Amino acid sequence: MSSQPTVSSQQVAKNGPVPPAMHWFLLAFLTVITFGIFGIIWAFVQASFVKKLSPKCNGRGFLFLTLALNIVSILVLMFLAVGMRDGEFSRAFHAEKEVILPQIASVAYVLITILFVVAMFRMRSGLQTYYNSIEPIQLRLSAAMTFFFNIYYFQYQFRRIAQWKKSGAPIAQSIGGIAVQQPGV
Fold first, then answer.
1. pLDDT tens for each residue of 26-75
2. Of 66, 91, 139, 169, which shows the fewest CB atoms inside 10 Å?
């Protein structure tokens, strides 16, 4: 017999922080009507929540790096576009302005996209570590869903976890569209 007391799912549900419970569709709607700005802000909200759960998770740092690189690339592209208007840049580098600007933009945005995806997967790792060890709800996050739907997928999961924490009822994991009760929760 074990001398450790057993912990019910209701006790565990009340111990940890509650994730932001906004509906994922509202997040998508607000992101669209604000031309993506709300989505960027919400990614930082989610990353800050994950940082509370898993302090070693550096997804937020990658998001800051993504944002900084995005701002720098916009400023550099604006500077180059103004410089190209006078023709001095193309004479100095012996490049056609129609060729160099799209190449610089392409490289910058590929790097930004890679950093963003790395940030999302770091957050995924932090969530799975926390919700499979500290608050063991056997959270499984799809790599494909994380890659393609990232902040919306996380928000869907956050809402499910917040509802579980509020009600204390076990979370049903959806497998192929069929809700399955999690064992041991």
1. 999 999 999 999 999 999 999 999 999 999 999 999 999 999 999 998 98
2. 91
Q: Confirm whether 182 is domain-assigned.
A: no
At 44, which amino acid appears?
F
Q: String of b and e for 132-145 (b: at least 16 CB within 10 Å)?
A: eeebebebebeeee
Its domain, for residue 133, covers 21-171
Asked whether residue 61 is assigned to any structural domain, the reply reads yes
Is residue 180 included in any domain, yes or no?
no
| Pairwise CA distance, residues 11 & 91, whole Å | 70
CB half-sphere exposure, 158, CA atoms < 13 A: 27
The helix (H) or strand (E) run that includes residue 141 is none
| Number of domains, the chain | 1
In a domain, 36, yes or no: yes
